[in-house]
Amino acid sequence: MRKLILFMHTSIDGFTARPKGEMDWVTVNEEMFEYAYERTQKADTALYGRGTYGIMQAYWPTAADKPNASKHDVQHATWYNKVEKYVVSATMRGQTLPNATIISDDVADRVNQLKQQPGGEIIMFGSPNLAQYLMQHNLIDEYWLFVNPIILGKGISLFNHIQEQIKLKLVEQIALPGGVVCLHYAKE
Question: Which CATH class is domain 4-187?
């Protein structure tokens, strides 16, 4: 069975964005990009919520073509353009996307079916509402939480709708430059 991996930046107090979705507080640097690049190479499928897909689609398909494209832009754009993409969205029901499949109904069953198919890992960047839904259905296998050195106090919480406990075991912790700590947990 394929693993569903959640990649998420959080504040120390568990927020994934400011109240209006702003992520101007996220620490990014070359070391983090290298670390993420190595990790994404194990995934051949990406799962997104509508909002995160829109952000990704607006930038990554042509990021490598820009005159001053960074190494990270070239690497991630290459990966993004080759992976199979799924977008979970009720509002996009019936639309056809040139590079992604929309999942609008029976989301838990459809994601579980994806996990049963042969292939590499399924990776999910961001999409906190979708992450909460998948946590409630016990579908996330690993959590890669990039805890940024900031307390936001309010915003979009990663865990505020979780009704039942989810037991995890710490696989590894990595201190990255800039004060970010990557906590890698697996479901027990």
Answer: alpha beta
